[in-house]
Amino acid sequence: MKLDFEISGLDEVRRSLDELEHRMEGVSGEHEVAISELFPPEFMATHTEFDSLEGMFSASGFRVETAEDFKRIPDEQWDNFVRSHTEFANWREMLSAGSEEWAARKLGL
């Protein structure tokens, strides 16, 4: 016995996949992204003791008003602060998680 049926909606799936492919092209490769885009308030509230990146910088005791200020913080001291006040073992891990969530947001996932 054979059944005849029609599958509908594949055009919509194809459009969605084409759109996702276009967004993926936009996030592949290297990007210069503002730190505030990597760590929006939602990220900070979920993964840290802070509501904002500014709140984290303020609580750290380090003066962070510019990128140069941030670069001057000794890595070991910053990693210790991150370990103590976030769910991450170090800054590199936090940065990686922020980058992954940034890419997911850009992809609309």
Question: Would you give an account of this structure?
Answer:
The structure is a single chain. The chain has 109 residues and is mostly helical. The chain has a domain at 34-107. The protein has 7 helices and no strands. It has helices at 10-27, 35-38, 41-47, 53-60, 67-71, 75-85, 91-107. The chain is elongated. It starts with 9 loop residues before the first helix and ends with a helix.
Can you give keywords for this protein?
mainly alpha, 64% helix, 109 residues
Short description:
The protein contains seven helices and no strands.
Number of strands: 0
End-to-end separation: 42 Å
| SSE arrangement, N to C | HHHHHHH
Outline? elongated
Query: How many helical stretches?
Result: 7
For the biggest sheet, the summary is: none
> How much of the sequence is in beta strands?
under 5%
- Helicity level, as a percent range? 55-70%
Mean pLDDT: 86
Helix-strand category: mainly alpha
Radius of gyration: 20 Å
Given as residue ranges, the uncertain stretches (5+ residues, pLDDT < 50) are none
